[in-house]
User: Fold these one by one.
Assistant:
Number 1:
Amino acid sequence: METSSEMWGAFLKSAVMLGVVIAALVLLLYVVRRFTSIRGAGKGREDIRVAAVHHLAPKEKLVLVDVLDRKILLGVTSQTITSLATFDGKTDVAGVQPEGSKDFSDLLQESVDRSCDKGDDHGV
């Protein structure tokens, strides 16, 4: 059997090695975070900005996003993200419907029609 001092020596050696490994991991995490922020992780925050959010249902919402001086209206559900309309950055979007876009009722009807068509394909 080992003596008490040999056991404490082995315990101390193990504790020091564990401390070295933890310190190396913390240092690695610090270096990774430091260099990823320099490469432009903060730059993207200026280019893309959420201008407005309107919740329609618990997992459904409309999101107006500013991207490179353009406004994009997105329909967001738990399963999909759909681009509904795009506006120039200089356009006042209040009450304006862009050319070629459809009313919400038209988009909703198309979605319902697609859902019904998919149901027929599966024998529902």
Number 2:
Amino acid sequence: MKFLYDFFPILLFFVSYKMYDIYVATGVAIAAAAVQTGAFWLKHRRFENMHLVTFGLLAVFGGLTIFLRDPTFIKWKPTVINWLFAATFLGSHWVGDKPLVERMMSHAIQTERPVWVRLSWMWIVFFIGIGCLNLYVAFNYSEEAWVNFKLFGMLGITFAFVIGQAFYLSRYIEDHKEPEEES
């Protein structure tokens, strides 16, 4: 359910694009992100950083797209978000005592520091790469191809990357079995 909730704006963007055009879809995505952010605050009495960043960038880039009637701005938004994530993961190597990925996952997974550092670098490269790939598709293919890629391509690549990360981490997770009792 959380997955659907987090991707609510992009799903509505996709459906609106298929029914209308990029400008209606952009307006719908901005409204959906506002509702998503507000609903989260009403339920939890706090904001989630990812929702705030997404809404803020959607409002700026989407607003420019609608106001200037130029889809270039909305096409840049996924790249900017991914590059901000890359910068945040990179910055976490120098701010605080642990890379961001370790801070996010160490409650569930125990492994050595070098593994966390490698994992962090993998995410940094992934975010930079997916941002570049978004620009490549946005400016070398049709608008419709980019919209399809934005939902299915980016989501599929991210899912495959996460699965790959799980396999990578599985090699380093220690199995903590309880000692067997002797009879």
Number 3:
Amino acid sequence: MLNLPEYPPRLTLARTPTPFHYLTRASDQWGGGKRLWIKRDDLTGSALTGNKVRKLEFFAAHALNNGFRTLVTCGGLQSNHCRATALVAAQLGLRCHLVLRADDSDQANTGNFLLDQIAGATYEVLPAVGWNKALQSAYERLEQAYLDAAEPALMIPTGGSDSLGIWGYIAAAEELGRDIATHHIDRAAVVLATGSAGTQTGLTAGVALAGLPLEVVGYAVCDDARWFNAKVNEDWQAARRRWPQLPAVMVEPVTRDHSAGPAYGIAPPEVYKLIVDLARLEGVVLDPVYTGKAFLGLLRDIREGFFDGVDDIIFVHTGGIFGLFAHEHSLIQAAS
């Protein structure tokens, strides 16, 4: 095991360590002779929950230590990251502004979007068409406007996925190391949904830094494997430039790109059925944007032999439960 690097400043926001346990009935039904485990990062808190909280421990510390008074971030209307950022800002007495993407015509005040507003975040909603260019313009405008108002803003990227955000899951990899030691797991695959690559980068780098007998596999919920593998390497190299204490370990991302479905935020009927089936089988609730798609991809890969080299598979549940409420009709139909 390598000596782990010194961490940047960090706040304690997440309820960790999160539970780690064996999915007995899911293993019997879908495991094909493999043991399925779950890392419950959906339980990092109550309203402030999910994988994004681990990243925000580092963003929030950076903001407070460097005089930022506002957190600005972006995502879809039902973004888990935006909701978590809004709640962290409220908890710390900071302002929060969200740049939200209108992924479809439904802008109902429900789920994460409702919690954004309860937390006091201001927001603007931009069309999905031309999103990248419009987002860049919005970030430039907002950064200058908050600076002019003497409320300087920390501009946080999509999903909190950059060289600072990855530290949240470098730390989580240490936690996973203790989990597998406790449960006497000698070697395993660690699988997760990946949507902006920050969690995937942190886990992949953290496993390499700690010398753990784990292979991290990301299931793309948008874009494709080529994009995610490039983004993981880009963020890791940026982190090494920014944090000289990081050693030159090899980070080799593995991404599966057959789980994205029709588009980001849109799931096929089999994802909704799987969400219902797992909830009734194990009392574990997935979401249709991230974890439902990733778990479906995992089960397909088990059947097709992708994981034939391991006996244990650990599913990292990254959260997303509030996003369920924007999918009520599809879920009710699957549950009937």
